Amino acid sequence: MTVMEGQSVPTVGRVEAIPLRHALPPEQSYGSARGRVSAREGTLVRLETDDGVVGWGEAFGPPAAVCALVDDLAPLVVGAPVNHVSPVVHTALQVGYHRSHGGLHVCALSGVETAMWDAWGRYLGLSVSELLGGRVRSEVPAYASTGFVTEFVDDEGAFSAALQEAVGEGFSAAKIKVGLGRDRDRRRAEIAREKLGERGHLMVDFNSNYTADTACRVLDGLRDLDIDWAEEPVPPHDHAGYARVRRCGIPIAAGEAAYTRVDFRPLVADQLVDIVQPDLIKCGGIGEARTIVDLAQAWNLRVSPHVWGGAIGQAASLQLLAAIPNSPHTEIAGEPLWLELDRSPNELRWRLLTDPIIASDGVVAIPSGPGLGVCVDEDVVAELRVRDPE
Known about the structure:
2 domains; nine-stranded mixed β-sheet; Enolase-like, domain 1; single chain; TIM Barrel; alpha/beta; 37% helix
């Protein structure tokens, strides 16, 4: 459907926050150098227009708090034209300026914003990538996000098997968890390099677990393993530390702990990172992520969205990736534009959609249907719903 002159756009009639949880058996807990998780949690946002079009969003953070914040946003959203995404976002941030420009209220806003994009696209019969300015690509290479930290941190067999499984499924790139000390980090990277081969792409994720001096010493010890990027080597507030680590000569990636363009401005303008990583379920949503992409490209930096959540966050990231213009190149890219494909046990990712997002030989096709291009299985949503989130 296209909007004709004089035709009104539907308004938002209802916004519902849905808390979800996938509990993990103790033996399956996993995580990073910062600690392990016993469950995967998240909040879906179900938005319905006054004429019955449904859009879906996803928000990062503890469901009890996020659901309350989505409810708090509802009066601002209900009654607004579904295509007034930017006015709703900016009004919410300006009205809530005293809450800061980051935190769980921005996560909640991300979920509502994404649901508006999805509903708007479904109403028009257009994909979100087309609404963002046009689809540049129909598929994207994916790297396997794997090699997590478990209770058995020194179990090289299990770590090696996880890498081998990804390679066996056609992945030529992987990101592994490090930040466990120089010896363990070196050994993990060696195993990953062996499994990926000389031409494979290897990223290492520190999850901000180091000071700048330690990160530099560890990276110096990994230099011969041809690391594509080192992710979050120091805490997000340590801008001086990022500047020090970036001088080590290995590309630096960060952004998963940054909110809105305000947090990303110094990362980009001060050239603190090489790869900018907005996470759509926490940075402010699809439109804010697109602005962050434009900032990165204005400073000639690479972009790779951080994707650590459920299926709706994946779908939104794919729509963003589809619309990112080639820059600074035209047809021949110096480095791939990557999708992060989480390989951890997470029913919020692989069960929520009637057609889950999967890779074939390390490549993911970007849905071309209306909105986010995916169909949510509401029976599964009901099954995973938390009745009394705490």
